[in-house]
Amino acid sequence: MTSIDDIVTEYTLIKAQADSATKRLKELREQILTRLPKGGDVAGVKVSVTRPKSIDWVKVEQAFPAVAYPQIYAQALDRDAVKQFVSPAVLDGYATEGSPRMTIK
Fold this sequence. Notes:
The protein is α+β, with helices and mostly antiparallel strands. The chain has helices at residues 4-35, 57-63, 79-85, 88-92; strands spanning 40-42, 45-50, 53-55, 95-97, 101-104. It contains four helices and five strands. Strands 1-2-5 form a three-stranded antiparallel β-sheet, with no helix packed on it. The protein has a two-stranded antiparallel sheet with strand order 3-4. It is elongated, with a radius of gyration of 24 Å. The protein starts with a helix and ends with a strand.
């Protein structure tokens, strides 16, 4: 039977290795995103980079107040009505960009 001392020692060693590996992965990720901001094929590996967006509904409410646009409001801003009333190109101006996502296959 393995002693608790051995288990704790092994745990701390593996944890240190994992922390070091996680830090290095973060560094490598930043370097890849810097050099391949749109992704690409490198060394037979496909790197995909996406930048998810979401609508900033507070800004949409400010741009389309209930007094001027009652048809898109219920008790609060009706997001589905806004999407039908306001073009996607205009709504894109209210989108906020999230953190880049990267996949390596």
